[in-house]
Batch of 2 targets.
Target 1
Amino acid sequence: MELTLATPAILFSTVSLLMIAFTNRYLALASLIRDLHDKYKIDKTDKMVILQIRNLQKRIRLIRNIQFIAISSLLLSAICMFLIFLGKLQTAAWFFAGGLLMQIVALSMSVLEITMSMNALKIELSDMEEVLK
């Protein structure tokens, strides 16, 4: 495989899309947490609110980690491009492989976050189980 400057540049658009998507998810979750916290202040015994906040906290941490890994992937890709520019192709290939691997990890973690989102919806709708069946 020939590694050119265009090869690691492919990751730039993917990372940008990931960052936009997960920044929006982060902002939406933060808003939900604020709303649920207001509900909690009114009724501190509502277990549903507590379960939802726990789930949202885990998802926020996961999104932060996804963003960190995606940015690290972008950094490795930029270093790879610089190494190609310097003619250090073997080292550049290792950095590119690291960037790809981090991209795979970030995407895998996003699947986990989507699964957690589905679980949050189950918690939200749990009081309607009899009606939905």
Note: Residues 8-126 form one domain.
Target 2
Amino acid sequence: MPVDSASGSCGWMINRRVYNDADAVAHALAESLLGLFDQAIAEPGRQIGVMLAGGRTPKAAYGLVAASGRHIPPNLTLIISDERWVPADHPDSNALMMQPFFQAVQAAPEQLLLVNTTLPRLDSAADFGRRLQQFFSSDGSLETAFLGLGADGHTASLFSPNDLDRASRQPAIDVDRPDGRIGISAAPSIIRMATRIVFVVTGSDKTEKVRSLLAQPRNVIAGQVVWKHPQVAVWLDRAAAE
């Protein structure tokens, strides 16, 4: 069974849930995604969105959902948190990694809010931001944002205070990533529109930043992204917790 606790800073709490290993975290994420399928079925009049992250553990969870045989309800939209600005068939593409999942759940093109990386860099970010805003202006609601946490404390493709400053003025931005790639990322203002935000974190290389996120969130980019949001949780394995 996972172990729950909470950590607070200036009256703001982040829930912490520790699982035995990365596999257990992936299963929890898969179960939560399937729970959102059920929620969308139960509320057919609502347009519900879920934000998806890239990474090893989410990939395993998407595989579990794909293997479940379930199909996505028509009123559920899958929204990518960020993307590397690479061709759609590039191995670094988050969307390419998610394609088996999209296909298995039979997501229609209009149910996928992805980054169009065929556009020039600035246009790609502007187009992504425009479609994010359109989702909300069309009565869409972001139920859960599942995010990753980098060993450097970043989340989505938001790496620096400068990124956060630029993202404060637009719904999505282009980013010069530290790895030399270009990223396109949803802005914190979009992420914070989620009813709940869940960081999914595995691996001992994340331990230091997990501790900082819980104890001093404003010292971590990811903490600044979600600062003061009413429902933030960190799901992590024991390697990341210890």
Note: The radius of gyration is 17 Å.
